[in-house]
């Protein structure tokens, strides 16, 4: 069997990890790489990580790379917002190449960015190719998995999704990302700057609502610190009583004035348990739980790769994880 | 919005329950009904259950009904095996109508019935329509849900799926179906007759294997009694020590001599816990559990109805829950 040829756009930490994962799969190979970072242009992928190809160099010119290597699919791991990702997607789709992206807002962009979504959709249909945004969250744990679990329900009254993570054993950058160890003032400042925010909670609610046929009146997405009630000591950091141990972000979606969707994403150093949970109040009630939770770094790279086979079979247009054929690991 | 028009074929207990569920949905209506049972022919659906339409009568002539009411979709709840369901499907597909069926062997028929599968697939493609087999199990708990959970894995070593049900609170017919209260000799006899078997374990293994790209060398499907270690008293029956409390059915699938898939379906009166569990050994490990389990009666009817919207959007051909767009409850 011929390998599926992938061009990767965005060779930051996520792109590198996806490149490693691709190199472990018999059915896939990275045949081109693009990044705008002057420090990366011209480097061989093998210079970034020993698992990666020494035959592929990083180019800054996307269209040139696509013309040259004619990949089967593009994996786009650059930015999180629709405004900046749209022209990148358009450049790829114009070459007739399908796109799998980790762009969070692309996971369900129809409500937050209807015009850009329609533009991508129209172009993809014209070019007979498909585009999807995926990842572990958004893309799976708080949207496509809960939606799929409702398949066995005759009625759904309310959907509650909880993702709790103990960050004590995660890397320092992750702990800093969630504001662990910050004073509450510093936490507020990071929150105002927008650098503490998990992107995608609103998109996840809109994904679930769309699948269930609910037209939400309103959504909210609120960020608060998880405050240490006593001093916390971990291998990688100490946190003083009263400072932030991490972040709690809650999304709520209302239908006809009733709160129908509640998503809680809490990541903190010293969080007692890590788990991912879906609670469906309905007929029947369903409570599904993944003890220990799902490791976000591995899972996002894996689901991105696992979506490649499905995007090749998907209907042309801007798709979501809710309307491409069921993804799974594949060998 | 126009309602989706459904013809139901098979008005036994499952067909009646699906009819009730359809009547509760704003987006669906049953516009025709077919059954070969002489006791049912000519009866109004409302004669079978008060929730059902008094405007629809049961006909024995499928093609006539399809011609007359021109439904959007047919829901087929007649038999469990490919041999007998195939001509029924062909009759519907020849009329250009998509089919959703609870036929267990249709959930993944490609390995067990390759010729019949190819025949249905070819005809459905010619007629530009789609066919899918679904249900809670097979169709969801032991195949499409576990396959979807592997989406977040970079590697899968082994898949173990457990469905345990305490039948103490289920109806008498269900308790008898699982052999509760039988002597071990009587259990053996029912097993030999084939009336104790849960149909679909092999299909579920082949579904998972196909999604993961595994070509299994062999599968087995073994049925044994769950034996009472002491006298058991329940509201609906008493079971003597040494008699059967229920059934344990184990499916195993091997790849290159290694046991890679293990499914256990155990239903017994007095089973300590009811739950549905998926354990994926891989990168990362995933252990997902639904405490209390999923009620099979409600869930099979619900997923059948929930698949209707998706079969209308599916690619033409013989499809599975693994290659139609993600199902979910919809209002």
CATH topology of the largest domain in chain A: Rossmann fold
Q: Into how many domains do the coordinates of chain A divide?
A: 2
The CATH superfamily of the largest domain in chain A is NAD(P)-binding Rossmann-like Domain
- Terminal CA distance of chain A: 12 Å
Architecture per CATH nomenclature, i.e. the level-2 architecture of the largest domain in chain A = 3-Layer(aba) Sandwich
The coarse silhouette of chain A is: globular
Could you tell me the mean pLDDT of chain A? 96
Roughly what percent helix of chain A?
Answer: 25-40%
In angstroms, what is the radius of gyration of chain A? Answer: 20 Å
What secondary-structure arrangement, pairings included, does this model have?
Two copies of one chain form a homodimer.
Chain A: E1 4-9, H1 13-23, E2 28-34, H2 45-48, E3 58-59, H3 62-69, E4 73-76, H4 82-94, E5 99-101, H5 114-126, E6 130-133, H6 144-149, E7 155-166, H7 172-177, H8 184-193, H9 201-212, E8 218-227, E9 232-233, E10 238-239, E11 244-255, E12 258-268, E13 275-283, E14 286-291, H10 296-311, E15 317-319
Parallel strand pairs in A: 1-2, 1-4, 2-3, 4-5, 5-6, 6-15, 7-12
Antiparallel strand pairs in A: 7-13, 8-11, 9-10, 11-12, 13-14
């Amino acid at each position: 069997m011929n390998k599926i040829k992938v061009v990767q756009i965005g060779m930051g930490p996520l792109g590198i990890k996806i490149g490693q994962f691709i190199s472990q799969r018999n059915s896939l190979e990275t045949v081109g790489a693009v990044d705008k970072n002057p420090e990366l242009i011209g480097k061989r992928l093998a210079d970034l990580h020993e698992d990666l190809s020494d035959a592929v160099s990083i180019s800054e010119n996307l269209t040139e790379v696509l013309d040259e290597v004619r990949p089967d699919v593009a994996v786009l791991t650059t930015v999180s917002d629709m405004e900046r990702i749209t022209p990148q997607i358009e450049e790829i789709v114009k070459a007739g190449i399908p796109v799998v992206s980790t762009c969070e807002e692309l996971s369900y962009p129809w409500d937050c960015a209807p015009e850009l979504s329609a533009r991508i959709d129209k172009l993809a249909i014209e070019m007979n190719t498909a585009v999807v945004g995926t990842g572990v969250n958004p893309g799976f744990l708080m949207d496509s998995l809960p939606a799929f679990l409702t398949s066995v329900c005759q009625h759904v009254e309310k959907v509650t999704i909880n993702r709790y993570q103990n960050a004590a054993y995660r890397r320092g950058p992750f702990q800093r990302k969630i504001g662990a160890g910050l004073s509450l003032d510093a936490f507020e400042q990071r929150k105002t700057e927008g650098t503490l925010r998990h992107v995608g909670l609103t998109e996840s609610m809109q994904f679930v609502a769309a699948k269930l046929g609910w037209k939400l009146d309103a959504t909210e997405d609120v960020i608060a610190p998880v405050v240490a009630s006593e001093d916390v000591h971990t291998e990688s950091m100490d946190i003083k009583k009263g400072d932030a141990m991490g972040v709690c972000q809650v999304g709520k979606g209302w239908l006809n004035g009733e709160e129908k969707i509640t998503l809680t994403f809490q990541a903190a150093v010293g969080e007692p348990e890590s788990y991912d949970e879906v609670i469906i109040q309905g007929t029947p009630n369903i409570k599904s739980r993944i003890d220990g939770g799902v490791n976000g770094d591995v899972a996002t790279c894996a689901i991105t790769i696992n979506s490649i086979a499905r995007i090749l079979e998907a209907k042309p247009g801007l798709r979501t994880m809710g309307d491409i054929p069921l993804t799974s690991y594949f060998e």
